[in-house]
Amino acid sequence: MASRQGGPGSADTPRPGSTERRTASTTAPPGRSRRATTAGSLPPEPRSPRPAVARSPEDPPLRDPSLYALTDHFRKRLEQPGRYVSTRTVTDAIRRGQLRWNRTDGWRFALVEGGIRFVVVVGDTETDSPVVVTGWTEVADREAALEAGRFDPVDVDTIALRAALSEASETAIPDRIRPRAVTRPFVVGGHRLETDPGEPFVRCVECGCRFRSKEAITSRRCHGPSPGR
Fold first, then answer.
1. Which of 114, 123, 120, 121 minimizes the C-alpha distance to 141?
2. Across-strand partners of 192?
3. Does the first or last residue of the chain, that is N or C, have fewer Cβ atoms within 10 Å of its Cβ?
4. Handedness of CA 68, 74, 78, 82 (dihedral sign)
């Protein structure tokens, strides 16, 4: 159960180039602690009281962002470049997103804005201390995303590439990597990755290793620049 120390709020509107250009892909694995720590601030509006009736995990979660704490897992995602999630997007997804039940992850809020889908996974929703477990972004409509102007082409390619790596984590996906141009490194498994159009791999700018799948990325530690680099 998460401790009540911080949560998403509309007051945390990110500055351009900060957390707005920072995304998931995967949810916290079984057994990961859901202890929440300070990340963001509570919204200024009055907190809604929790209902007195008992709730079950299958009951739809409440749409009050002020009730949700942030897990350590999600807080780290807020700090990573190329994640593209913020406390503002969490707040908007909880309030207005489509609600879905997933047998693996539990409840998800999904909100599409400007061609980008923001997904927020919540847990412990049957308790008095629900939490935001994780969150990520997906490209719902590439043309709409580019026209909206919220993210530039590198951002959109980064979102699409990260999602592709996570969807088939054990499979090499050279054909899905080749169309992407990612010149601002994003972080996966401790590696800072980029790729140029036509390349069938992502490349770590620190250690120089090349990868074609997420499993290959996460199974090899980054040891920094190799001799001669």
1. 114
2. 187
3. C
4. negative
